[in-house]
Amino acid sequence: MGFLNSIDVSASGLTAQRLRMDTIASNMANVETTRVANGQGPYRRHVVVFEAQNNKPSKGKFKSALQEQLSALSGVKVREIRQLGENEAPFRRVYEPANPDADEEGYVNYPNVNVVEEMINMISSTRSYEANAKVIEASRAMAMRALDIGR
């Protein structure tokens, strides 16, 4: 892996973690949203799904294929931003018969967003972002040091 490749890998991590933080912030902002614009009930939690970003496909024997894959890795990319359905994370039901969004039994469905879980995910995403930023800074420092040695 070359010098610039390490910066590219970390830059892809920065971009992916930034999108994850934005998605988490959106989840937290909509924790009390009982009705979305399209009328499909309460807000549904969104999650970001990452996958490895490869430059080239591998072919051949296992050892050579493994080495090709390791050298072909060029970071991370967002595969999708997925909404969690009610079967994956049920809505929070609260008895509020006076609420206009209440059903015939008087219960209101609130989003399937858990603020504590979102805060934990935000901390994890922030730490990953900081780690990628430090890798870029360390790569820059190593390049500057190599230039100093060459003088």
Describe the overall structure.
This protein is α+β, with helices and mostly antiparallel strands. It folds into two domains: 3-31 and 46-83 and 117-150, no CATH class; 32-42 and 90-112, no CATH class. 49% of the residues lie in helices and 19% in strands. It has three helices and four strands, in the order H-E-H-E-E-E-H. Helix 1 (3-29) runs antiparallel to helix 3 (115-150). It is elongated, with a radius of gyration of 22 Å. The model has no long low-confidence stretch (mean pLDDT 86).
Task: List the SSEs and their pairings.
Elements: H1 3-29, E1 46-54, H2 62-72, E2 73-83, E3 92-95, E4 107-110, H3 115-150
Structural class: alpha+beta
Poorly predicted parts: none
Give the overall pLDDT as a whole number: 86
Order of helices and strands: HEHEEEH
Q: How many domains is the backbone divided into?
A: 2
Shape: elongated
Proportion of beta-strand residues: 15-25%
The number of helical elements comes to 3
Residue share in helix: 40-55%
Rg calculated over all Cα atoms = 22 Å
| Major sheet size, sense and barrel closure | 2 strands, antiparallel
**How are strands sequenced across the largest beta sheet?**
1-2
The total of beta strands comes to 4
Q: Between the first and last Cα atoms, what is the distance in angstroms?
A: 25 Å
